[in-house]
Amino acid sequence: MDHEETEFLPAPEALAKALRGLLPGAWRIDWAERTGSTNADLLACARRAQGVPARPWLLGSHVQEQGRGRAGRTWQNRRDANLMFSCAFDVFLQARQLPTLAPLLGTASCEALRSLLGPGAHRRLTMKWPNDLLWDQGKLAGILIETTRAGTATTPDHFIVIIGLGLNLRDARALSQSLDRQVSDWTGIVAADASAARADAATLVARLARAWYEDLNRATARGFDDLAARYAKVDALEGRRLDVLDDGRLLHTGIACGIDGQGRLLLRDAHGETAISIGEISVRARP
């Protein structure tokens, strides 16, 4: 996957065609050369009176000119350096359950990508709560989850969930230097794991999208009973000392010890355990 030798992303129409062969026929699949934001595009459609024309709907773009991350951050990208797409799904959950979707879908994403790796590489791919994907503790991908009332909803538990993912394909070294933090990319994973080299762009996208769809269906039918146990297998923070910040203010300090059944991060200190549902998580080095 050397950038000067070959591009990982095929032409948009070729990628969409490949995805239609990998995902069920009921899915709507579109891939553009560029757009503002795939999440914003799907949200705008979802809020119309007629709703999103078809769901599940997968919308990808080689370049997103107004891509967004969590907390309103912009997502810097260039063609063939990032894999970026969003999916719209119907879900039937209580509003209080919606925050649990972040760790659920982050866990599902980590599991899906691990399934493309050899067993020996699994532990190197982890998840930082609530849903960042890490390779060797460097950020590989971010996930943005947004929910809205369906324009055609007739019940109070009917929402549309928009899941957007941006995965670094290359440029990790340059990004690490410019951002002054560790960044990883799929090129580095391919160099370290022969199994990853066999996964093309369509396979990556389809594996993630199908995992999201299946997990949302399971959550609707059975809730989140197994989430804490699944998260424990991909947890990048277990046993690490953390600061929890909200808008720059220190809220909590403690040792990470998994999540609870609602997907909240558990921090342990001298006074016991605290469940965290908001805040920006920064990992503080052990003394």
Which strands sit side by side, in order, in the main sheet?
Answer: 1-2-3-7-6-5-4
Mean pLDDT across all amino acids = 89
The major β-sheet equals: 7 strands, mixed
- % residues in beta strands: 25-35%
What's the CATH topology name of the largest domain?
Answer: BirA Bifunctional Protein, domain 2
Q: Specify the CATH homologous superfamily of the largest domain.
A: Bira Bifunctional Protein, Domain 2
The succession of helices and strands, N to C, reads HEHEEHEEEEHHHHEEEEE
End-to-end C-alpha gap: 39 Å
Per CATH, which architecture of the largest domain? Answer: 2-Layer Sandwich
SS element count, helices? 7
Q: Estimate percent helicity.
A: 25-40%
Structural class: alpha+beta
CATH class of the largest domain: Alpha Beta
- DSSP E strands, number: 12
Low-pLDDT regions: none
Could you explain the architecture of this structure?
It is built from seven helices and twelve strands. It has 287 residues and is an alpha+beta fold. It has two domains: 12-232, BirA Bifunctional Protein, domain 2; 241-283, SH3 type barrels (Roll), CATH 2.30.30. A seven-stranded mixed sheet has the order 1-2-3-7-6-5-4, with helices on both faces. The chain has a five-stranded antiparallel sheet with strand order 11-10-9-8-12.
How do the helices and strands line up, and which of them pair or pack?
Elements: H1 12-22, E1 28-35, H2 38-46, E2 57-64, E3 82-92, H3 101-114, E4 125-128, E5 132-135, E6 138-149, E7 158-168, H4 172-179, H5 186-192, H6 201-222, H7 227-232, E8 241-246, E9 249-259, E10 265-269, E11 272-276, E12 280-283
Parallel strand pairs: 1-2
Antiparallel strand pairs: 2-3, 3-7, 4-5, 5-6, 6-7, 8-9, 8-12, 9-10, 10-11
